[in-house]
Amino acid sequence: MTNSYQPVPDGPGHHAPFSVVEATVASAHAAMRDGRLTARQLASACLARISAYDQDGPALRSILQRNPQALEEAGRIDAVAGRNPTRPLAPLHGIPVLVKDNIECGGMETTAGAACLRGNLSADDAFVIRRLREAGAIVLAKTNLHELASGGETVSTLSGQTLNPYDLTRTPGGSSGGTGAGIAASFGLLGIGTDGVNSIRSPASANNLVGLRPTMGLVSRAGLVPCGLTQDTIGPITRTVADTALLLDVIAGHDPADPVTSQGAPHIPASYAASLDRDGLRGARIGVLRHFFGDQDVHRPVNAVMQAALATIAAQGAELIAIEDAISPDELLASTLVHHYEMERDLDAYLAGLPPGVPVRSMQDIIAAGSVHPSVAGTLTTAAALSEREGEYRERLQRQQALRQRLQDLMARHRLDALAFPHQRRLVAPVGETQAERNGVLASATGFPAIVIPAGFSAPDGNAPQGVPVGLEFFGLPFTEPVLIRLAYAAEQALRARRPPHSTPALE
């Protein structure tokens, strides 16, 4: 089969119509090659689903704004491809992407869900967005988030509460929950989120998705509304490990505007997609962190899914090593994170460069405006006070370094390829409650990589006819994304746990 573009014929074809539900980059490109699909048709199908289900139907409220130029951009992509039918498709040719609205996309507002950032019209693309467009992707829409990326429930003043498509009484995780809910509901094929503590992996876990937090320095943060740049990163949220690898191939790279990416550039392989190996678990040594599981009744649904998932992984040839090291995620959350100590400094640096029409120029301006969501107001006040505590901040940075060394020693001692645990010890929080017992701190406090994949579902109930999704997290050493992708892909293929939500079925 060639990788060239075949124009869609005028008359009826011999192939089945293309369905955007659960579509992947590979399936979309196959349909384009055999003449069943254009970029414009693909974008239109996703936009139709947004119209049907985001404000109507289950009213997920995952989308903050649509790109008004999306169909025009898709048409241009089709026109260029039609003039060059033998030219191979670009890596993300015509692929609609949902982008969290704390990342700048040229010609669209970047609000981070905050009313006080209305008017922040981005003149240029962030580095990752430029990479996406160069690879042929279309920014279809920008997604809701927990306002200013400062919480785990995905609620903002501009879009309200985003709902979990598997259980409309629950949150979609956070803070990238708009991207998570939208990708789960097939509003786009690929998603971009950001992660300061749990914020890519939490929505992946809660929405039966794949979410990768890359090693610090692998992906540029230029053009990001920051929370604290020691921990902030950008990464993929997708329905499959293969699409995560394809997306990482595009967005990883050195960016002079984010000097930390000079550390990652030497470690980028020719292709992350080359690590997709169905037999990738055979001979792998995976440490299972006992203290990252709960032991109370509330933990039983997650533990049951994880027990079955780990048994499947072992059956694929992986050796599971029980790790009794008393690493406590709750203690790490309380003692190692630094984003609130950095928030005022890093946010002020971003706000100072905003267009004249934006009414805020500092975090103190945001506090004074009094317009942020109540769940964020206290965070801002706390961050303002912590910015003065230089001694505590330095101690936490030292604890992060100690944790890096501790984990490297642990993995070397046991000769581990990765650590494994549930991303969240209990099911994702209902609307109105805060997230509890999430385990993403290992990666956020160290800057090491981690990937979440669908592990399965809790038992169905009246609110969740399919059950509530549970995510399994693999954690690795710096720049071992190829290893994590290999393990995650093999586990994904064995588990086959991905299911589309019943609340957003295929349209007529």
UniProtKB/TrEMBL annotation:
Q: Which major enzyme category is it?
A: hydrolase
Q: What is its EC number?
A: 3.5.1.-
Q: Which GO terms describe its molecular function?
A: hydrolase activity
Gene3D superfamilies with a match to the protein in the record: Amidase signature (AS) domain
Q: Has keyword Acyltransferase?
A: no
Record keywords = Hydrolase
What's a Pfam family in this record? Amidase
Domain of life assignment: Bacteria
- The answer to keyword Repressor applying to this record is no
| Span of domain Amidase | 43-483
Q: Which PANTHER family match?
A: AMIDASE (PTHR42678), GLUTAMYL-TRNA(GLN) AMIDOTRANSFERASE SUBUNIT A (PTHR42678:SF5)
Task: Give the protein's recorded name.
Answer: Amidase
Species annotation: Cupriavidus necator (strain ATCC 17699 / DSM 428 / KCTC 22496 / NCIMB 10442 / H16 / Stanier 337) (Ralstonia eutropha)
Kindly list the organism's lineage.
Bacteria, Pseudomonadati, Pseudomonadota, Betaproteobacteria, Burkholderiales
